[in-house]
Amino acid sequence: MSDPVQNDNAEDVGSVPSFFREHAEFLHLLDEVATSASNVESWTLPNAPEEEMRLIREMKKTLDVYQEQPTCLDPYLERIVSRLMSVVQEYVYAFHDTMYKPESPITVTRMDGIFDLLYTLCKVRGYKVILRFFPHGVADVEPVFATLWRFSVDLEASNWPARYTLLIWLSLLAMIPFDIESIDSGTTDLPAIAELGTSDVSLMGRWVELGKLFLCKPGCEMEGAAVMLSRLLSRRDSAAVLRPEFIEWAAREITNAARPIDTTAVNAGLQIGSVLRINGALRVLCHLFSAMDSHATLDAQIPMLLDIFQMDAFDQHSITRKLISKAVQRLALLMLPATNAEMGRAYARPSLRENLSNNAGAASDSMRDDEAESPDVEVPLEMEAFVGILLQKLHDKDTIVRWSAAKGIGRISERLPMALAREIVLAVGDILKDETLVDNGLIDVAMTTEYSWHGALLCLAELSRRGMLYAQALRQIVPWVVRGLTYEIQRGDYSVGSNVRDAACYVMWSLARIPNPSSKRVFAEMSVEMATTLISVAVFDRESNVRRAASAAFQEHVGRQSAFPHGISVLQLADFFSVGIMRNAFVVTSRKIAEFDEYKHPLLHHLCTVTVYHWDLKTRELAVKALRELAPLSPAYVRTHLLPGIVANVASPFLAVRHGAITAVAAIAETIAVELVSHTDASKMVLDVADSIPARYIEDFGASLTLAALTTYMGSLSRAGWSIGEAQGKYFALFELAFITCKTVDDIVVDFTSFVDACNLTPDQRLRIVKHTQVASSGTSRESFVLAVGALEKPSDLELLCSLVAEGTTVEIRRNAAAALGQFCTRARDGGRLSITWEHSAILALSQGLEDHSVDNRGDVGSWVRKQSLQSLARIFAADSQTFQRLNERDGELAIRLLGQILCSTTEKIDRLRVAAGHMLEILLYEQRVEAADSRLCEGLEQLRRLVPAQPNDSSGDAGVDGCEFSWADPEAAFTRIVQALSVSDEQLRRPLFEGLVSTGSAEPLGKFAVGAVAAYAETLPETGATVAASAQPEWGVDGIVAELTRLLLTDRQTSKIINPALIVADQLIEQGALLAAAPDSWIPLYRATQRVAFKLRAPLRLSLCLKLYGSLALVSEELSRLAVGSLLAHMAHPVLRIRQTAADHLFSALCIHGVVDVGDDGDEIGRLVSETEWAQESAGVKDARAQLTALVRPRLAQDRN
User: Fold this and answer.
1) What is the Cα–Cα distance from 787 to 804, expressed in whole angstroms?
2) Among the listed residues 910, 898, 892, the one whose alpha carbon sits nearest the alpha carbon of residue 869
3) Which stretches of 1019-1149 are DSSP H helices?
4) Which of 117-121, 162-166, 1120-1124 shows the lowest per-residue confidence on average (mean pLDDT)?
């Protein structure tokens, strides 16, 4: 077969390939594998050559990629399969010819790789397609059968893909149009199989017995044997004798296996072996009933099969129950005439002209079609039992069983007379009515089971797809299907019913495909209810698959029935992608759709009666946000129809209902306050909410959620300007209780701030807030009240917050104090109360917060304080462009120090912290105006603006100078940008930035980006510090970097946390050659500083870093080589054994690999002593080796010095 021409530049669809991209390489590997496997001399090997197996593994890996889009392989399948099968056929013929010899030279495992590749093809593309290219000559039958027989002697072997391939090959050969007896050569000397005890030596008999052997095997062999037996037994020459015998054998096998081994045990179940025997027998029966063309030979076996199908022994095995469902429906279909399928759908006219006709004649014709009966068809008596079994399977607990039964009922109904088909439709509809209460048209499903509803709806969808739902049935069923769209029953802390809602959407989708005009008229009567319910589910359901299914059903009705109001316009808003994102569907899409009058009130009704009471907190919160968007569209309807029902649930004993009702009242009270205030009864209902809550609901279980809802309610009243009056004291007490009870108080603080703005607190209330922050014991309540202080306005409150930022006992208190400080300053500025003194105190405290590097078992918890300090500083500075100017005039040193801290923070290891620092830096550089031209701050800002150019967008994801995306969250881009600021002339700005880069440079995986940025920057620097006269811009030399590293190493080694990072970064920069341009006299201080760090040091980690740096310094210059080698040699006598070995490793690298010191002819001896001595042990040999090594190296060092 020639290769089709394909465009190699074609694009893939998502992650799924759109064509067989690797076809050339794959076919080349195929030729290599086939050539290797066809080598007859290699067939005596126990296994395939390793190179062949490697190529096969590579080919399998390529094929596995196409499991999602297997049709891409179709143009090449014939060539691939034919090439492989030619090798297999040749092997099978040779194996068959030699298997009767006493010592067969051909092994059974030689072709395992080829068979495994064929199985992979079947797995990816399906055995039915692959079988098309298998050889199927008459001469193949006995060799393939004999080979499979020989492969079956030892079933414990690992070559199951070979047996599976031979089984499906035999299934194809079983369809040859010749009598099996005519090709039976009468071979009787096949090897014995222990599991087979048949006396039938004919080819047909052995064929059946061999198939039975594999029916109890797990995996693909069972499926292959079932397909093979079904095709074999469906032949005419086996129908008279073998088929009835086999069915009786299968019935006995199932009956015997279904008996528990231990009948005395309680809840005695089936063993795994018994389950496999049952599944194998049922699987072959399913395939056999599907392949047979008549049930004439089954009359005697049907009662036996019915007894099996109705057994109760399979309740614990879902696969078995599914196979029973398939066997029942296929046997029923076998017993019914296939020609009745069109009769059953007589009313569904095939003519498009008649379907679209709206004249009276067409309508009357459709009515006659609904009432018409199909010709008399003889229905077997057993059909009632079959349908009853399938109807019972609709209640099964497993979806695969219900789905199989639903499809079976749909297929059977097609072939039944119309009267019986309608009875089945009514019976399925009655399943929805079981255990359902109907009160004033409202359907209560609280007592129902989701399994029954799901199965019934799936069945109705199948019946609808096949045109079995007549007009009268539609009028009865559609209201129940609409109720299924909102089916949900809470079970503890979760709910069930998403599968029911999905099935209901499937029914609605299938209803749209009924083509007869009478159904179209029924849909026109119910179109508004169906459309509004579908749209409500499409935008307000919790599950994304249900929302998308509802959108698809709506789309189907719009396209086929054209009965939904504003169908096209609404569909453009509620498409697959719009409803896929939950927040977008709830808040954005619903708001746009609600602008259509037909959908406005149904959406509000669904929102206020279903979604706001949902068990999931996130869903309720989104529902309230949607209510805030939709309520202003129809305030009168909300006030008259929805508000009373919501208020009635604010004191519900169910926590989710209570929380949803209170937050819904809050949303309504804030968004349509004008409408409510003008009506006394409505305003009274709103204001009485807090009083109607029993005390136990804010004290017992669930109190935190109820209090959070109440604070939302009180905040909404405050923002909307409601007159609270005497309730102020009670509301404050509720806020106080909420701060004590709730763990997450961010939203509560917002509502409390609104409350404080609307109702001034009394001095006593202010004092109570402050006292809560001064409790000696730490806890969430104290931390919460610290946030509440941000809503106050006294100078003492500011002093309290400033002290807590620096001296708070817990990191949570310090973090909350930093957040509250930003809020306090923002509110004070908005109220005109923020003085320069207040502003300076707040900035000073937040500057101290930037130095918080606390660490505990949770990690770098100080980063919480630093991040919040950055965000609060951004709030303060972003509100007024003169803030930095005033700070510089009042405290220039603080302004410079703050700018240096911000620069240091832009090198943080945590992405979110770096983003906050980058945003703050851009505010200082490009939004603040500092006009004092002679100040250090102004000069530093001007230099930074040149070194760190402005970005056109915000720091969260702006386009860089090069036109590419820039984000401070990207460490490589952030460090590359900020490292240029090292050229600033002011040391108070340069040193914090360099310390930050060094600190980050020692951490993985960000360290490589920080060190790489410094190394790239160093390559652009001159050897020594200089000033370029043309630009008057100070330049920082490479020796300045060495001096800064030296300074960091000279810090207090008892308390400093920067020494280890400095050692790491210095070593990495030297290794990368970034500092080689430094002046020679700048290296000795760095060595002396390293020597000072290592002096009398016993910490293994830091000392190992020092030794590594010695090894790097030894490569810089001859003088440093002599000094570093001497230090390494001295550390070989260190009391810590691990350090001795480390020093020896670096000494060997310096002397024997890099040759930094000329050791003359002693090099081999020095290398032997260093490498062969166990320096990590304390022994006399180690001491002798160290003495010899010292005697050899020390003179060379002294000679170099001279």
Assistant:
1) 11
2) 898
3) 1038-1049, 1059-1071, 1083-1094, 1100-1113, 1118-1130, 1137-1148
4) 1120-1124
